[in-house]
Amino acid sequence: MGRRPCCDNIGLNKGAWTAEEDKKLVNFVLTNYKCSWRDVPKHAGLLRCGKSCRLRWVNYLRPDLKRGLLTQHEEKLVIDLHSQFGNKWSKIASHMPGRTDNEIKNLWNTHIKKKLSKMGIDPLTHKPLNAYPPPDNHHKHYQSQEAELPNGEETQEHHKDQEDEISLNLEESTITHTDDQLAKEQELMDTNNGFLQQVPMNNEPDENNDNAFSIYEVPIIEPYEPDENNDNAFSIYEIPIIEPYKNTEDGFSTHEVMLSESNENTNNDFSTHEVPLIKSNDNIDECFFSDAVPSIELEEPDENTNNNFFIHEFQSIEPEETLRPDLSSSCSSTTCSNTNASTTISILEDLKSLQSFEDWQSGGHKKLYIENSGVTCEDDFSDWNWLINDFDIDTIDFELIRSLPDPVSLKNSLG
DNA sequence: AACTCATTCAACCGCTACAAT
DNA sequence: GATTGTAGCGGTTGAATGAGT
């Protein structure tokens, strides 16, 4: 049978989008909220296929997207959601407003997978590595998981994938192990750092004993301490004991994240998920080719620097000496410990000129200046609630702040 | 400076689901 | 029920970039 391709591909651009193309697409989408993606390139004057336009919009141009690296909290959420849904990236993304499936998928494949493996956790099963259950038990475990999930079909798919990969891993380990490798594994088993030592050899639950449990059901994991010399290391303490459907650290339930639904009666509409901030033009009833598309100025990337960065990116910086004990003790989460000293200085510098926190919020101080490696940038405070929360700014004594040494000399004194 | 190798992530491709005809 | 069209999903690719030598 075969299907007609989504476009003829003749004379169409491929590869990276230019700023000009982005501008055209955004202008068009924001003003033509009812249009099939197939028609978008034609009407927007783009030499792209509709599919490519949709992808560009959904993954990159959508105005509600958060940009930048995921926060630790988001990472934890991804891990936990992945343990529930497997590689159902869109499902995971639907629990993370402002994040795309593509972004999460990339993050998983490039960062989280490695982190988990490094910690001795199988990123596929979320169980300790080398602790694969015997076939029967294995099957039983998945069956019990399945019963808890609403969508049996998807779950089965996921499990099948898991089983395939697990058996592959087992095969590989059987075939490729050399004496050296075995010796190394034994060495690893003997260390106190990994999980391996913690895994009991007999994993079978005692069916005659109600109190017995399988390690696969309740993994007995002794967490190891994070390696402070290694930015990428994190402790099991930090991972996925998250109840995803309960209130999160950010103060909202993932159930409570209400996005407006797309109009189910009109398939060709853009979903409001995809076009969330549009004031629709009442005169537009259908897709049209308009010369009167209002020109919407996009923020141009600075082509000379590539350094369009976000506060999230500063979080990987190891904290230097804390400036003030009372500030540091008010920090409530790990995020705070990742905020470096120069960030703190900038915050204090900003605060010193104010009478109150409300001044900062409501006055002309919505911009916060952050310095990193000699580069100073500013960003809108409204996106940074986590930072404010971590500094517990409501409790800050402004008189004390004003009496602090000059931030520059303070910074110099820290070296 | 030049080269190699590793990593990242935007974009592509092929497929499925689903609705419309 | 068969066919077609579209949106969306997940795996993969490859250019850009960074790190190491």
Strand order of the largest sheet: 1-2
Order of helices and strands: HHHHHHHHHHHHHEEHHH
Radius of gyration: 26 Å
Q: Count the strands?
A: 2
Largest sheet: 2 strands, antiparallel
Question: How would you characterize the overall build of this protein?
Answer:
By secondary structure, the protein is mostly helical. The chain has a domain at 311-414. It is 40% helix and 3% strand. The protein has 16 helices and 2 strands. The chain has helices at residues 19-31, 40-44, 50-61, 72-85, 89-94, 101-118, 135-148, 152-176, 179-190, 325-330, 334-337, 341-352, 357-362, 385-391, 398-403, 407-414, and strands at 367-372, 375-380. Strands 1-2 form a two-stranded antiparallel sheet. The longest helix has 25 residues, at 152-176. It is globular. It binds a DNA duplex (21 and 21 nucleotides) through helix 3 and helix 6.
Write the layout of secondary structure elements.
Layout: H1 19-31, H2 40-44, H3 50-61, H4 72-85, H5 89-94, H6 101-118, H7 135-148, H8 152-176, H9 179-190, H10 325-330, H11 334-337, H12 341-352, H13 357-362, E1 367-372, E2 375-380, H14 385-391, H15 398-403, H16 407-414
The chain binds a DNA duplex (21 and 21 nucleotides) through helix 3 and helix 6.
Give a quick summary of the entry.
The chain is mainly alpha-helical and 415 residues long. It has helices at residues 19-31, 40-44, 50-61, 72-85, 89-94, 101-118, 135-148, 152-176, 179-190, 325-330, 334-337, 341-352, 357-362, 385-391, 398-403, 407-414; strands at 367-372, 375-380. Strand 1 and strand 2 (375-380) form a beta hairpin.
